[in-house]
Amino acid sequence: MPEPSTSQADQLLFPQWLLTLDTQAPDQGLEPLEGQAVVLAGSQILDILPQTQARVAYPHLQPQILDQQLLLPGLHNLHGHAGMTLFRGMADDLPLMTWLEEHIWPAEGQHVSEAFVRDGTRLAIAEMLLNGTSCFSDMYFFPEVVAEVAEELGIRALICAPIIDFPNPWSANPDEALDKTRQLHQQLQDKPLIHLAFGPHAPYTVGDETLNKIRELNQKLGLKVQMHVHETAFEVEDAENHQGKRPLARLDELGLLDSNFQAVHLTQATAEEIQLLAQRGVQVIHCPQSNLKLASGFCPVEALRQAGVSLCLGTDGAASNNDLDLWAEMQTAALLAKAVHQDAAALPATAALQLATVEGGKALAQEAYTGQLRRGFAADLCSLKLDTPDCWPLHQISSQLVYGRMGDKVHHVWVTGQQRVTAGQLQGMDLKTLQDQAASWRQRLQDSFQSQDAKA
Amino acid sequence: MPEPSTSQADQLLFPQWLLTLDTQAPDQGLEPLEGQAVVLAGSQILDILPQTQARVAYPHLQPQILDQQLLLPGLHNLHGHAGMTLFRGMADDLPLMTWLEEHIWPAEGQHVSEAFVRDGTRLAIAEMLLNGTSCFSDMYFFPEVVAEVAEELGIRALICAPIIDFPNPWSANPDEALDKTRQLHQQLQDKPLIHLAFGPHAPYTVGDETLNKIRELNQKLGLKVQMHVHETAFEVEDAENHQGKRPLARLDELGLLDSNFQAVHLTQATAEEIQLLAQRGVQVIHCPQSNLKLASGFCPVEALRQAGVSLCLGTDGAASNNDLDLWAEMQTAALLAKAVHQDAAALPATAALQLATVEGGKALAQEAYTGQLRRGFAADLCSLKLDTPDCWPLHQISSQLVYGRMGDKVHHVWVTGQQRVTAGQLQGMDLKTLQDQAASWRQRLQDSFQSQDAKA
After folding, report:
1. Best of A34, A298, A322, A391 to disrupt the B interface by mutation (most B CBs within 10 Å)?
2. What chain A residue is nearest to B95 in terms of C-alpha separation?
3. Both B152 and B283 in a single domain?
4. Which residues of B are less than 8 Å from A400 in CB distance?
5. How confident is the model at residue A447 (pLDDT cuts 50, 70, 90)?
6. Over 80: is that where the pLDDT of B453 sits?
7. Is A435 in CB contact (< 8 Å) with chain B?
8. Is B405's CB within 8 Å of A400's CB?
9. Residue of A nearest to B440 (CA)
10. How many Cβ pairs closer than 8 A exist between chain A and B?
11. Is residue B388 part of a domain?
12. What is the pLDDT of residues B382-400, one digit of tens each?
């Protein structure tokens, strides 16, 4: 990475506490520092040094005093379907197949369009920026629209082009999806905020032929490949019954499991499969709230961690969560791992924090350099104001971040050095318009279901 | 209950949406109503009627317009240890016995005093009022101090006098604890906000002799009896090994299991035990986040519900949670029940809402009349402002309340008609003083551990 020079310094941040998550620091950057300054130069972090020294070294810069605030890397939400935010709460508490077949799929069939994706994604990004998310991953139709909206609103994104064997709103067949992905790769080359990935939907919706084409194409492109894998016991059993092997075994035979592969959900994994994932360098994206809500099963987080598998976190779509709050996901991950592993020391707060930052950063293209506050890394940061009774006393900052309610404490957010949230207010986005658009989609969705009900 | 008269009407609330949770309404009060007014008279709800009619019927009252707000009953947090809020985050991610023996018990031994309980309880109440909790239950030392602080700050409380067989900061022996409980009962007779209960700590800390005395004494007093029961598998196995029976069987033999009995945690229960609890009318207090964090096990919530057992919710103390946010507890309860019961339809959002309100109300003395918005019930209410992107679109209010992040949306809170939170600001409590007190206790706690470490 080309490091900026001192003369390019343009922002001086003086937080009360700093958590760098810097993996090269002796304590992995997990110990809160006081009296430290972060110096930004354009889109990058130029320096981290004591505030007293920063005042001398950068006399031309007026420091931004972050009173009662903790500064840390922006969060990385590595799995979701932003467009589906418009379905938030539309059909909850239903068995998985009823939910999909009677609600989500008909609604998608009738309503998903470029306009739907544009409005849903804008809403999702507004929510995520406000809660300190500086990077999100998306797997949904019309990825070119998602990329455009993300760039416009200034949030970093890993865009997983959806590849499915059957016709869908974006592609008539998988070859069209692959062609469009190639085109998108060309178009997005010079967009520093946007990282493209392949998004083959799931083992049961993408056949061997398509997966082989993805592998071949990716030998040139070297992109990440994100896929729902072993989401439920049913998926695995069904594959065993019909294909004679478990999906992970099939994916490995096809040569897909490598350090570019991201397995989302993984509620089912044998000890051998955990070893395989570790050997292949596969990253697992854990979505604990979605797994609970859809009764999908429990991801063996602590066993994966102990085997050395890199894990990061995702909220999944708002239709199965129902918020896009990675703080809550961190909390659920840390709490649930203890119960599942029957050990109150499993997935400690510091480790959960790393999943949402450092490990999330690993899920992007290598040149992104996010998830840590370190010289030369991207200036993707957020500050939290810890000035309410639920933060007191502040014995241990990492505990507070993971086990407390934190999404509402987010004060400022920067992505590539641009301040996107200031004192809890979104910059450059009109909330009233967002609210009206959401209300309008709500009306259209409700009307179509009522007319369906009337016909039935 | 003596119903107030129309002439006593003194507050007129015009929310955008109203959720009464009224069990006598055809839909159990679970359907959000628009255009309705709530009329308060002193400490009670006088009437609920259309806003147009209310303007005519109460022309002398200026309506309080609750714009973009949902009005519903205040939440009931039925299990906690408010004083322990000062331990928040002090020792996390540790195995249960290490946590207790090396951190919590030494800290309690050295620091728990009337002053500690007073300051910790004030802090807990501030947090709870701010997140819409109008009623909390407490089981901790110096219950007379907790009662005094709760009354002073105007929050409703179920105070469980702690009864333990061994010497503790409040009592040298169980007889002293029982004497003090009797005295407290006398002192609290005329306090409408304060409800007294017996709080025998747990089956393994209270012997048969003490439990018999509680049962006898309670034949006259008719109080609730709250106890940690079957919190862990170890507790049950240990009792089987040493006493030849499971704790619930022992409590039933002692005649304690009746409709006044509240079993906290209950992560272990056979099908027969669930039937027994239903027959006896025992109420179960579910603390899902604490159970997860301490790896205690999974409460069989859905099986209990299906057997007709009344369930309500508690956060437990901040040392094992780490917040006192019953919205988060509702969410965790609803999500976890689905995974544990392997059914995405288990504990739907509407049922989770009832646990935190209606069922919580049943946990108090019968004359409290809380947990529902209904004529003659206590004017214990909260309003939530649903004006942020994470609430849009608002397809289903009950889903939003349970699966969204809601603690930070609380706008106004009333207890017995007194407004305790106005536009998110605590009334009559100085936050700076609270913060300073918490910081001072933090220092004292840290110092004592450092000096212990130095000695070791």
Report:
1. A322
2. A344
3. yes
4. 88-89, 322
5. confident
6. no
7. yes
8. no
9. A393
10. 210
11. yes
12. 999 999 999 999 999 999 9
| Shortest Cα–Cα distance, A188 to chain B (Å) | 28
- B389 reaches A (C-beta below 8 A): yes
pLDDT score for A260: 97
Residues B183 and B293 in one domain: yes
B420 Cβ under 8 Å from any chain A Cβ: no
Q: What is the pLDDT of residue B451?
A: 67
Mean pLDDT of A383-389: 98
Confidence of residue B154 (pLDDT cuts 50, 70, 90): very high
In a domain, A244, yes or no: yes
Mean pLDDT of chain A, nearest integer: 95
Tell whether B344 and B298 lie within a shared domain: yes
> Is B176 within a domain?
yes
Q: Write out the two tokens for B280.
A: 């006896």
Interchain CB distance below 8 Å, B408 and A403: no
* Residues from chain A contacting residue B293 (CB–CB below 8 Å): 335, 338, 344, 403
The tally of domains found in chain B comes to 2
- The pLDDT of residue B342 is above 90: yes
Residue B456 lies in a domain: no
Q: What domain range includes position A43?
A: 6-73+373-423
Q: What is the pLDDT, as a whole number, of residue A5?
A: 81
Number of alpha carbons in the 13 Å side-chain half-sphere of residue A323: 27
What's the mean per-residue pLDDT of chain B? 95
CATH code of the domain containing B237: 3.20.20.140
What are residue A70's DSSP bridge partners?
A17, A384
